[in-house]
Design brief:
CATH topology of the largest domain: Rossmann fold
Shape: globular
Strand order of the largest sheet: 1-2-4-3-5-6-7-8
Number of helices: 9
Radius of gyration: 18 Å
Structural class: alpha/beta
Number of domains: 2
Strand content: 15-25%
Number of strands: 8
CATH architecture of the largest domain: 3-Layer(aba) Sandwich
């Protein structure tokens, strides 16, 4: 099981999970989750001879921060420094994927490889939604205005966990319970109002030189699937996979399908240098 840790850095207490030893694999969570979304992946990479690390960004999970000016990219750099990690394979989902891209562009020498799952890209234009998807977007906006946290959580679970065009409640059991716990904690946290926006990466992704694994679920929002396709063409050393029957969080929904992809990528990237057995 992953072990919890905390890091006190300049008045912020970052919380996270880690397990294993060896080449670091750093996991960056989605904007509707926290580090707990990666528990299965941390266990899998630790068992394979790597060091799996995930932390809660400001505004998420167990991390505690004052409402002050901050940058998620600078926070990532500070967390890695505190953990003694110079270079790593970086795995990011959704907004965590956008942060992984930002880090790869800012510090390419520190990124041995990238895994981007249903990724966002900093500076991307607002998407144009087809009418059938627009209905769920309108529902999300309406319930957000109501301020009813439980209702917001339910609608966001439909959109991001089930998929916007899927039946509400498609994903059941422990995965749904964990999603509600993670997203509910985010919705109940005090808002941080002074985040410094990152520089647009939309026109820079072609400069990523690190080997990159792109993963998307075929039930995700159409614009995210299209972005996945575009990135597979824009990033020279990219490998793309679609996990059928999953939505925005395929690593959480189907770790039995995602984890082998991740481990195969790591083995191809790092190879026998780290795992001589």
């Amino acid at each position: 099981m992953p072990h919890p840790f905390t890091l006190d850095i300049d008045g912020v207490t970052f919380a996270g999970l880690e397990a294993g030893e060896g080449v670091p694999v750093v996991f960056l969570h989605a904007g509707v989750c926290d580090s707990r979304m990666w528990q299965s992946q941390i266990e899998a990479v630790a068992a394979a001879g790597y060091w799996g690390v995930a932390y809660d960004r400001r505004g998420f999970g167990q991390t505690v921060s004052p409402d002050e000016s901050f940058s998620h990219l600078e926070d990532l750099e500070a967390v890695l420094e505190a953990l003694g990690i110079h270079a790593a394979v970086v795995v990011g989902a959704s907004r965590g994927g956008a942060l992984a891209i930002d880090f790869a562009l800012a510090s390419p020498e520190r990124v041995a490889g990238l895994v981007l799952v249903g990724t966002s890209v900093t500076g991307a234009k607002a998407p144009h939604f087809p009418p059938d998807v627009m209905r769920i977007v309108n529902a999300m906006e309406a319930v957000e205005e109501s301020g009813d946290i439980d209702a917001i959580n339910a609608v966001e679970a439909h959109a991001w966990l089930d998929g916007p065009l899927s039946e509400s409640g498609r994903v059941k059991g422990d995965v749904r319970t964990l999603f509600h716990a993670m997203n509910g904690a985010i919705l109940r946290k005090p808002q941080l109002t002074r985040e410094e926006p990152g520089e647009s990466a939309v026109d820079e992704v072609g400069g990523i030189g690190a080997p990159t694994l792109l993963v998307a679920g075929d039930l995700d929002f159409p614009h995210i699937i299209h972005r996945h396709d575009d990135l597979s063409e824009d990033i020279e050393n990219a490998f793309a996979a679609v996990i059928e029957g999953t939505a925005h969080l395929p690593s959480l929904e189907r770790p039995d399908l995602f984890n082998p992809l991740l481990l195969e990528f790591l083995d191809a990237l790092i190879g026998d240098e780290t795992n001589p057995d």
